[in-house]
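call fold(seq) -> C-alpha cells
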Amino acid sequence: MENQNPPSYFNRPDLANRFIETEEPYPSLSDHHDYEPNLEFDDTELQTSVAIADAAIIEEEKSGDGGFDYLESPVSDGTIEENFEEELVNAPISGPYSIINSANEYDEDEDFSDVSQYGIVEVVGDDTYGRKIITVTACKLPNNNQLDHQRLLRYLTNTLDMFVEQDYSLVYFHYGLNSKNKPSLAWLWQAYRAFDRKYKKNLKALYLVHPTNFIRIIWNIFKAAISVKFGRKIMYVNYLHDLAQYLNLDQLNIAPSILEHDQRLVQKLNKIPRPGLLNLSHKETVPAAEVPDEPLPTKQFGVSLSFIKEHNNMDVIPPIVRQCVEFLSQPDALETEGIFRRSANVTLVRETQTICDRGELVDFKGNVHLAAVLLKTFLRELEEPLLTYELYDDIMQFQSLPKDKRPWHVKILILERLPEDNYQLLKYIVCFLSKVMDRSDLNKMTSSNLSVVFGPNLIWSPNNQLSLSSIGPINMFVDFMLTHWDQIFII
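ret:
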C-alpha cells in the first residue's frame, strides 16, 4: 500500500531542498511524529526502494567526508518514554523478502568467535541513566563476502538476550557503511522484525551517530511499520561531543576512523567541543575554565573508598551505600519487580548525587528505582572497581576453571587478596543482595539476573572497556559469589 500522511517536511520545498542542496544538519526525524503511522507493511516498497537506497550509499561514497549530509540531533529533556510500545506488525511478509523465522532460533552454545572477532557489537558499561550500553559499529563490518549476515543477526540477538530484561541503550555508529559492507534492505527489515517486543520494550534510547541521507531513506521506507512510541526513542547525534551529554565517552570503544571523521566534521563547521568534554583525537580531558583543585570533603561519587573513609567519618560502609541498602531492604522495596532493572530520571539522579556529595541525607521519597540506580552508580563511578584491577585477570580465568577448583579460587581472591575495606563493603552489598534473591519470586531478580546487573559495576578492565568476551567470566564469577555467599564470606 502507498504510504499515507508523510512527514510535513516532505511537502515543504524549502526543507526538501535542504536534503539535496546543503551540507547543514537535517532536522531530526524524531521531531516529526505528529502523524499516526500505518501499521501495515507492503514489501513492494522494499523492492522499489532498494535502488534508491543503493544510490544514496554510492552518492555518499563519492562525496567523501566533505559531502556527507547529516541529520540534526533533537533536544532531550532528560526523560525517555517509559510505556511499553504495542506489538508491531504481526503479519508475515511474502515474496523474496520474507522473514526467516530461524533468526531468533539460535543454539545457545553456538560459537560466534568468527563474528565477534570484528568487534561490531560491544557492551561498554552504563549510561548516565543507569542503563546498559550496547554499541554497533558500521565501519567494523567486513565485506559482505566475508560475513554471514544471518549469523550476525543471531549473534546480535544472542548478545541482547543477556540484557533485554533490564533497561538498555543502543548506540549505532553509522560512519563507514558502504556498498561493500552494507547489509541488504531485506536483512534490515528482517532484523527489525526479529527484534520483537521483548527487545523493544526495554530499549529506552537508540542513538544514531553521524547519520546521513541513507538513514533518512531507510526511515522513509520503514516508517509505516514503526510506532510513534518507538520513534521517540531514536536520537540523532551529529557530533561525538553531543553524545557526551548522555554517555561517558571514555567507556565507548570508538574506532579511530570515527574519531578522525568526527574531528573533520567539527573543524569543517568551526564547532569546538565545550570545555571539560573529551578531546577525542587524543583521549585526554580538556580542562574546564574553573575546576576545583580538590573535591568536596564529603564527596562520595567518583572518588576512592579511601577518600570516602577519610572524609566522611565512617567505619567501612560509605553513607550513601548504607542509605540505599537500608531503604531497599524494606519489604515493599525488596518485592518490587525488576528492582535493579529499571532506570531513573537522570535529572533526579544527578540532583540526588549532588545532595549526597554535599554531605546531606538523601530523601528517596519512596522512589525504589532511584535508590537502586544510585547504588549501581556509586559502584560504577568508584575510581577503582570494588573487586580491584589486580583481580581482573584472575576473574577472567574463572570460566575456564574446573568446577571443583572454583570455590577455592573465589575464596582466595575475596578472602586473601581483596583489601580489607573492599572486602567489608563487598560483604555488606552481597548480604543485601541475598535478601533480594530471597524475594526473587516477586522481584524476578535471581542470582543470574543480579550478576548481569552488578557484574560490570563490580569489576572492569584497567582500560575501562567492557568487551563481550569479558562479560561471560564476570557474570559467572558474580553469579557464583551470590549463590555461595554464605560459604564465601565470614559471617
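DSSP finds 22 helices and seven strands in the chain.
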